[in-house]
Amino acid sequence: MSTSFEILGLIIGLLNYAFVLLFLFNLLKVDYYNPIVSIFVKAYKPVSKILPLFPNQLINIVLLAIILKLLGLYIFVGNQHEIANLIGMAIILTLLTGIRIIFYAVIGGVILSWVSPQNSNPALQLVEEISNKTLSPIRRYIPSAGGLDFSPIFILILVNLLEGFLSDIYWAIQ
Predict the structure, then answer these.
(1) Domain limits of the chain?
(2) pLDDT for 94-149, tens place per residue?
(3) What DSSP state is assigned to residue 125?
(4) How far is 57 from 23, CA to CA, in rounded Å?
(5) What does 16-42 look like in DSSP terms, one character per residue?
(6) CA–CA separation, 61 vs 79, rounded Å?
(7) Is the dihedral of CA 60, 26, 20, 151 positive or negative?
(8) What pTM did the predictor assign?
(9) pLDDT digits over 3-15, tens only?
(10) Which residues of 119-148 are buried (b: 16+ CB within 10 A; e: fewer)?
(11) Are 109 and 131 in contact (CB under 8 A)?
């Protein structure tokens, strides 16, 4: 495979990650005044005007992420699989990307809460915010015990189970 296809695949992969991140920012309703989030939102605005697929912005973003993943898969393994399998693989890989981002954000949020709580760095604030908004539903039902927060353990187990389930489906499709 030529280097131009590899570079194109890298660009498509980065765009897929960017759309998955934008989807998570919208889904979790993170602070839009964060400079990192505002860059993503400003970059998406022209795309949303060019490709208004559905009236719901969340659906548009996730569909664009899946289309980008499908394009990347088609470039690299298009002649080895049927298009229906590639679509299923693109959906599962996009979901796995979002789950992986949440997994690392929760781990990063836990580490930041020990090392540097309330940091002023926009990237670290974003990691803490994604982590806190992911953990908040669990924290409603499982309060901290003696100052120890056990909610990350439950989220990490749930994420691990979802990742295993989706990986099994992916390997069955492939």
Answers:
(1) 3-173
(2) 999 999 999 999 999 999 988 877 778 899 999 999 999 999 988 888 877 777 88
(3) H
(4) 9
(5) HHHHHHHHHHHHHT--TTSHHHHHHHH
(6) 27
(7) negative
(8) 0.89
(9) 777 788 889 989 9
(10) eeebebbbbbbbbbbbbeebbeeeeeeeee
(11) yes
